[in-house]
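Lab notebook: predicted structure, single chain.

Context: the supervisor wants predicted structures on file for every construct in the current expression panel, including those that have not yet been purified. This is the next one on the list. No modifications to the sequence; it matches the entry in the shared construct table.
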Amino acid sequence: MKAVRYVLIAVVALVVLAVAAVAIAMAVINPNDYKPQIEQAVEDATNLDLILEGDIGWSFIPLGLELNSVEATLEGDRFVALEQLVAQIDFWSLIAMSPRVNTFVLDGLDARLEVDEQGNGNWTRIMPEKPAGAATEETAGTQDEQAQEDGGAGSEPLNFNVENVQISNAQVHYTDKSTGQSVTLENFTVNASNITLGSEFPLEIGFRVATTQPTFEVDGSISARLAANEALNEFAVSGLNAVFDMTGEPFGSKKVTAELGGSARANLENETANLSGFTASLANLKLSTDLNVTGFGDKPTLSGELSIAEFSLKDLLNNLGQPAVETSDPDVLKAIAFSTGIGGPAGKVELTDLTIKLDDTTFNGSGSYNLADSGIVFNLQGDQLNADRYLPPQAEGEAEEAPASQETAAAGPEGDLLPLETIRSLLLDIDLGLGQLIVSNLTINEIKASTTAKNGLLKIDEFSGKLYEGSFGANVTIDARSDNPKWTVGSDVTNVQTLPLLTDLAEVEMLAGGANLKVNATTTGNRISALRSNADGQISFNLAKGEFRQMNLTRMACQGIALVNQEDLTTTDWGTSTPFNDMRGTLDINGNTLNNTDLVAALAGMRLEGNGTVDLAQSQLDYEVGLKIVGEIHRDNACRVTEYVKNAVIPVECRGNFAEDPAGLCSFDGSRFRDTLQAMAKNAAKAKVDEKVDEAKAKAEEKAKEKLQDKVGDKLKGLFN
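Prediction complete. Output recorded below exactly as produced.
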């Protein structure tokens, strides 16, 4: 026992002697006397020139070092400088083998980083170049040492304690001469105290960053309480409050504020992380979420909620200094919101109870995203949307200038419609429903749309709805596997009333009736011009119980009949429409041209027959229509249908731009009427010949009858006498 006591006394004595020796050395030795040696050592080992202008001091309790007014230059230019550096370690914590940093102070740091025209940074020239062999040996040695350190590190927890950290007035200047970009970090400050692993500690950071391309400035402040365990595999942030005031060219020189708040925690060993009460805001846009993540690999599992509070997009753009979105209705884009639940199995993000609000339109549904194959699935159902409210307002005189603007657009370069590479990578399955849609002044109800995409095939399997007392359905397939995509379009329209449709769509009131259409067409290309020129297919149509408006074909027919009868029409109230039954025909699609050879319709006392073409590129109509007289067509006596008028054809031509003057398209065709007159004259001559023949036959029959009666009478008389 005495031996142990003596050993302990000896150890304590050695410690006391060591402490005394250090204290005496610090009291006797002045570190400022060694400035030249220190400067020379740095210059020998690096390409830096070290200048120690200020005093160097040290202390015993706490054990510390203090540097003042230090500067290092590189090739004659300042590389780094600092006003003061203070590092103090609690002496007794060293004795206890549990080092504790008492104070770390860094004030007035000034660093200059520069990239030359060739893209080389000045920091790469700090160390002198060494022979290749030496570098290899040094690298190998370093790797061996690192391996030994890693092998000997074991899993012992780190005992780390810092009482106070202060960084103030720090600045870093970065200049890239190859791009002209310049970035400055200044007013950088850090304050932290009582930094102990396993416990929370406060942290405050402040800074200012400025760039030149574009001109942009950020003033930031961050405060939070941080925590890390001794194994450095679990971290936590609580009470986060980060504010960033930004201004510059990206925001039109306006001041914009962004903020972050909430709490976060991550465990690297268990691969878990979560955000609790986390909020992020930019101007008047605010996002909030509670999110849990399990697994940091390729198949994480997520759960939580995400929402964006209602905001005005127009106010947001104004706050961000961005151009305004001009809309025909100034009250739209002022109430936008988003919310969803987040869940799903590993490797798949599922959105549940998804709600998207756009002004007075609400979409509800669900969706998912597969991390393995980037597959996207959405199912959304909306109530009503007036898309016309979101279109740009029409300026005064814009309608009159439309043709000129179209020519200008046609003269400009034409771009591709579809991003083919993107389509080839898509994996989609989207179902969309909408109770009511108003677009181009058309009202469409009960819309259903189903879209899929896989391996370069984009399919709209269903696009259907109800439209003006009728219904429609369409399907489209786009094969984008080649650089010249193939399009296949099919559509059925049933009993859609054309008058309100054309009136709402283009303010055209030339046709009424229930339209029935069948469209089957194909085309190739990725530009509008190519799609039009390569179009091929057929459109069959039928209109039951309709009428031509703003034109009276009966009057045109009667004008022709009156000419034949060599009389004048006395009727003045002809009206402005022509009723018909069952107008039908087929349009053959040949590029920009639609050919129709079998147009027929039944009118009162007439049969309409015609053929012609429609040039979609020029919006031109070129039709020759014949009105075949099959019965009485009007009460006007001059329009009476005589025997030689019946079955004659009254010609009508319809030519012109159907987009500009639909009312003036059709008129009586005088040039073709000569043929009609000849036909009528032949009919009249034939009728007269037939009449004379009939009269001759009647007279001959009468004479024969009289002779027969006379002979019979004579015989009777002889019989009775």
